[in-house]
Amino acid sequence: MSELEFRVAIRDALAEELERDPAVVFFGEDVAAPGGVFKATPDLLERFGPERVFDTPISELALSGAAYGAAVTGLRPVIEVMFGDFMALAMDSLVNQAAKFWYVSNEQGSVPLVVRSAVGGGGRFGAIHSQTHGTWFQGIPGLKIAFPSSPAEAKGLLKASIRDDNPVIFLEHKRLYSVKGPEPDQEVIELGRAHIARAGDDLTIVSVGKGVPDALAAADTLASDGLSAEVVDLRTLRPLDLETVLDSVSRTNRLLAVEEGPRTGGWATGLLGLVAEEGLHDLDDVWIVATDETPIPYSPTLEDAFIPDADAIVASVRTRLGVAPA
Known about the structure:
- This protein is of the alpha/beta class.
- It has twelve helices and 14 strands.
- A seven-stranded mixed sheet has the order 3-2-4-5-7-6-12, with helices on both faces. It has a five-stranded mixed sheet with strand order 9-11-10-13-14, sandwiched between helices. A two-stranded antiparallel sheet has the order 1-8.
- Helix 1 packs parallel to helix 7.
- The radius of gyration is 20 Å and the shape is globular.
């Protein structure tokens, strides 16, 4: 079976949607002629021309404003904010304009735009280029937030995001760009529907983005301890597929949420609250593995210790459940 690289999945999804729909345009910082700082968008300029694929000044505010204006006047823009940390500069156009236009227009106008960003730590980029900003937007009605965990998920979720009539924040973990995996078995992956990445009976581990392959690796190790872990890939933080998580917990009775980010204000804390509210009768135990409440360190040694990985998940489960290594 042929394998697909994550960055190629992003490029292919963009190319196929640009080919399919003449209303799709793509622009951002160094995305056209240079092919993207993470080399996820090469050859698109040459294939589709400078009117549909073009570079812009380094101004996230200008990018988001242009995308909003394009979306409400008939186009379907996809923009790239190079590092997700700088989405703060695009907040007004996205939070106060794009997310609310359908509502304030009495459901007469939609805003079909997608904002792609590289996120996450582990790449030695330091505190200002390593954050995951999905939770900054999670409390905003009208926005959707997608966070793929594999090349197949990246392609299917990005195509769905581009076709969606709502503004979508699309998160791409930097440490997944070079990961290879199977080709997708479906063209489009529905936003808001989680995926059981691994079946299990003793514990539900929920994550998103790079946390999913980490959880799968942890589940392999835990299997040698005699623990059967089910791994749920949320795929999207908004809409949040609570039903799939509750169904899993009803069978395993334990829930661990793994988030690369602080516990305070994080998606994991919100998820556990929802599960406790709706499924308390099924819960024997519930906890979170997250980062410390500090900015992300630059030092390689400190950064590795700071970010949850497969080993951290295994250690947490063994400690929580009182299981000795096999």
